[in-house]
Amino acid sequence: MNEIISLHLGQAGTDIGTSIWDLFSKEHNIDNLGIIKTQPQDNFHLSFFSETSSSRYLPRAIFLDSDVKLLDKIPTNSFYDKENFICGNLMTNQIDKMTDNYILDKGSEIIRKSVENCDKIDGFMLYYSLAGNSGLSISSKIIKMLEDEYSKNIRAAVTVYPENPEGLQAYSTMLCMSNLINDASFSLAFENSQLKRISKSYLNVIEPKYRNLNQIIALYISALTLPIRTQSQLNISLQELSSSLIPYPTINLLFSSFYPFLPINHSLSIEYSILDIIEGSFAKQYFTIDADVYNNKYFSSSMYFRGDISIRYISSILSSIKYKKIVEFIDWCPTGFKCGYFNVIPPIVEQWDMTHYIREIFICSNTTASCDLYTRYRECFDNAYANKQEFNKVTQVIEEEELLLNRENITTMESDLAECLKETVDQE
Which SMART domains match (predicted)? Predict the structure, then answer.
């Protein structure tokens, strides 16, 4: 069994974590005390859960935050291991190097203990926002530490991008994007603005809160990790997932889509064929970032079907999509689609915004469209830097020269991705 340790960093990481573990526990029939209701026929759930001597199943999860109120965010009757909660002594929105160093040292110790408790560690999944103090300091140091000490293991970052960042948020986002290129095996990007559109337009949430957005992220992560957590014809490790999607170490920014989204009060009277869900999943509005997916090329794409799926039709549909050029792959990276099929759709979680159709699709892709994301947030940085917005705060954490080197790293990625697209267009 290949185990995966989840690291939830800062307020965003903690909040996302509670939504993810709510869904994971529901999928694996584990109650809030860690008691499994129906004994599974396999042990794939142990990739994300550890079994105690008293036969309780606890998340392989570590929570880190500089905010002293971290523990207040977790339900007291939950199944988390409280020894895996590390918090500082600061109030929110403060930056302090001593607190960051304490969290890093303590976090490194807990991570090492968690790794020792694994039979065969596959890697780490980190969850955090690129904005704010934890993004600017703790997360970058943690992922760098993992790259130094566990370089053979996958470091998968699930990252949330702020909406129109200014000042400190713009600097933080730039720094984190650069560190992800160098230190992460891959990162899965979510833009708050795009999540809000999905929540409003397809889940009928009038004023989406972070709670609503975190539910959507949890749904995507559930789908992404399905071939790791469940028995199927496509059982893969985090290492294999990374290898199938990343053509080159620095081209490692992924985004995904899911279709269909249905609000909890949906009548289910509309029918979606296999063709409908495949074509719908490539619509721009269902992707987790705001990018021009139509005029870019794909390096790779993994496609997971859930529910009532007839496999025999899928190959011809995907061939048609390629022929119509709805999706085009980079010529020198002709990996095509990697498909997985899972019989069970996600369970309904109480008080969540969504229900589920009898068949669904999740796609995770690596495309040149990620250049749009790099450019947009680099421009936010340029604006903040030109006006020296909150510059005295950011220089408490990082030197100006290093900040500009990180910007250069992003512009290099923009050029590389644009060149990949240009080479393919020129060959045509």
Answer: Tubulin
